[in-house]
Hemerythrin HHE cation binding domain-containing protein (Mycolicibacterium rutilum), 239 residues
Amino acid sequence: MSPSLADQTVAQLGGPHSVLTRQKRDHIELDRLIESIDAATGDERGALLNRLCRLVFPHAFAEESVLWPAIRRWVPEGEELTLEIEREHQEINELFTELEKLDVDSPQHHELWRRIVALLREDVRDEEDRLLPMLQQAVPHRALVALGWAWEATRRTSPTRPHPVVARRPPGNVAAAAPLTFVDRGRDRLDQLSRRSGGTLSSASTSLSGALARVAGVIEHLPPLTRGEDPSTYSGRTP
Ligand SMILES: [Fe+2]
């Protein structure tokens, strides 16, 4: 099997546009954000967590929509390994939903955050050391570049918040992409506005963002969005 992505150069990974290079780039940025969050408090910690969500959730959503289906086709162990990673993603989605309800400086937030960090790091190691080297072994460089563009295009138009009820597999997650992306990215802009402004505008942005969160809660329970699931990654919640 190919060595871990961590030990390979950009040329070995298939060049700057290869899906392997793009994955490794995001994983390095994730590590940097985790360290910044660990050192931050209050509004700064909240804003950094929001940036981490905007990195992590589109990254994982595009993996589940584009990359894992390709790996299941080309890599013999793909079914088993992608299912294992989908279970990790599901757990991260569920824990992040809990984290969003807590005060960022509370001991409960710090404790839950540590559990999430452990899972995020385990997920990166599973991908860089096991799953992605198998993909590298199975397909030529030009396929890695084609997958890189497809993954990037999906990542740029994917939801930016945790959605534990939505299926981790097509067709459910593909159907979920457009409406949840619209709502999530709208909430991101409102939350930014709320942090930057004060007084009436800030509280109006916060309450509008809360209303959009409730809209997302209704959308994600619509039947087409929960289809395609492996039973082990189904949260089974009702609104
Ligand atoms: Fe990844």
Summary: The radius of gyration is 18 Å.
